[in-house]
Amino acid sequence: MRVIAGKFRGRSLRALQGMRTRPTSDRLRETLFNVLIGGNPEALAASTWLDLFAGTGAVGIEALSRGAKYAIFVDSSRAASKVIRENLKSLGAAEAGEILELETATALRRLESTQIETDFVFLDPPYADHEAYTKTLCLLSEAGVLKKNTTVIAEHEKRFDPGESFGTLQRYRKLVQGDSALSFYRQN
Questions:
Q1: What SS3 state is found at 135?
Q2: Where are the domains of the chain?
Q3: What is the DSSP string of 66-121?
Q4: Mean pLDDT per segment of 10 residues, for the chain of length 188 residues?
Q5: Helix pair 26-37, 58-65: axis angle to 10 deg
Q6: Rounded to two decimals, what is the model's pTM?
Q7: What is the CA radius of gyration of the chain?
Q8: How big is the CA angle at 121 (ends 119 and 127), to the nearest 5 degrees?
Q9: CA separation for the pair 118, 101 (Å, rounded)
Q10: Which CATH class is domain 26-187?
């Protein structure tokens, strides 16, 4: 696994051992960022990212590499938090990221209390945990961590549909690639 583009382009990232964590593939990450950038390389400049169920941190790190100002990585696994910390340190980007070793709901409450607002939220729960999608998207729609124009992206199996709307969040695009899909949401 590697960083695809930006200042860390080509740098390797550590992955977790075993099959419990499924990192977002290089190809899907490239597609994600091509969609978000839309021909404007400055689209991510100075943005704040929230990477939920972060695993290795590959998506948030890719955002930092492409110009994001700050990334918050949330994963309840101690092993995942350690790998994210190691990846940020090896890139010299430890100061550009914050790691919350917490369950998603607890992390969102903590972030809301700090009044932080994010520009992009990426969530990638285990594909089989369909309830995590519904719960997390509902929590995000109510949490005070989203700006009016925040983009929320859910990675999921192409055979599973997380849903069209959750409170104020409305899906505006779905992109399928291989066995995976990305659903893009914004507040309506």
A1: helix
A2: 26-187
A3: TT-SEEEEE-S-HHHHHHHHHHHHHHT-GGGEEEE-S-HHHHHHHHHHTT--EEEE
A4: 91 77 79 90 91 96 96 96 96 95 96 94 94 97 94 96 96 95 95
A5: 50
A6: 0.94
A7: 15
A8: 165
A9: 18
A10: alpha beta
